[in-house]
Amino acid sequence: MTAARNSALALLFSLACLVAPPAAAQDEMSEAEAFVASNIIHILLHEIGHAVIDRFALPVIGQEEDAADSFATLEVLTIYDDDVDILLDSAEAMLIMHDLAEAGGTPLDYFGVHDLDIQRGLRIVCHAVGIDPDRYDEAARWTEMDPDQQAACEIKAETAIESWDVLLEPYLREEGASAPPAPVTLEDSALPDMRAFLADSGIMTDLALYVGETFRWPQVPALVAADCGEANAWYDPDTVEITLCYEFIDELFALAEQR
């Protein structure tokens, strides 16, 4: 652990003092449910990353999707620091999607707005190992990461933390400052089991608290779960809403069956 890393944690990771541990008790879920919950958390934090970039007009060098991925991974490491499985599950989902696409003969989209699923999954692992190699040693073995790669991941993780710290410092609430949570709407669904799972998990309400109390928003984004006609999630800068589709939750349960 370097001094640079320790000092870098102070700003971006100060939210750990602002947000209570999540209410969703994943140790009480089935293995498949915990896998799905892990991925919902990372997906929503990814979209919150987009909202942060948009509402605070933050500069992005490179792909914004990569920046949102790193934001989500770093925030998971803070808010849910006792739950190693969240990032392992999120990375595994990306790798499963890559394997399914490859097996199905789906052409790789090198010009897509996202990196390839396998790259996104391995980047999650790289950040996690770079920040906490002891706790994520299983992931390093799982991805066959050699010592040189682990050292490179530590540098990459430190760079990501320091970069986010510089960008976010002006917009973080002071420690102890209270604020209302972000609005949450769970619309009725043609997939009632998916709606019930999301409601029972408490993920949306936990992240609504995080969203409200962590940043000094010009307009706090709302969190919405809805039927969308597709398995997707997005941030809409016009409505300032983050939408999670029930179809996406259903797809995550299908991915859980592929493990």
What does this molecule look like?
It is a single chain. With 259 residues, the protein is α/β, with parallel strands linked by helices. The protein has one domain. Helix content is 56%, strand content 7%. It is built from 10 helices and 4 strands; from the N terminus they run H-H-H-H-H-H-H-E-H-H-E-E-E-H. A 4-stranded mixed beta sheet has the order 1-2-4-3. Strand 3 and strand 4 form a beta hairpin. The N terminus is likely disordered.
What order do the helices and strands come in, and which of them pair?
Elements (H helix, E strand, L loop, with lengths): L2 H10 L18 H25 L8 H16 L5 H19 L13 H15 L5 H6 L4 H22 L15 E3 L5 H10 L1 H12 L7 E5 L6 E4 L4 E5 H11 L3
Parallel strand pairs: 1-2, 2-4
Antiparallel strand pairs: 3-4
A few lines on this structure:
The protein is an alpha/beta fold and 259 residues long.
Features:
259 residues, 10 helices, globular, disordered N terminus
Report the average pLDDT across residues: 87
Category by helix and strand content: alpha/beta
Strand ordering within the main sheet = 1-2-4-3
Rg value: 18 Å
Could you give a short account of the major beta sheet?
A: 4 strands, mixed
The domain count comes to 1
- The gross shape turns out to be globular
Helix fraction?
Answer: 55-70%
Count the helices. How many? 10
Query: How much beta, percentage-wise?
Result: 5-15%
Instruction: Tell me the total number of β-strands.
Output: 4
Parts with pLDDT < 50 across at least 5 consecutive residues: 1-21
Give the distance, in angstroms, between the N- and C-terminal Cα atoms.
33 Å
Order of helices and strands: HHHHHHHEHHEEEH
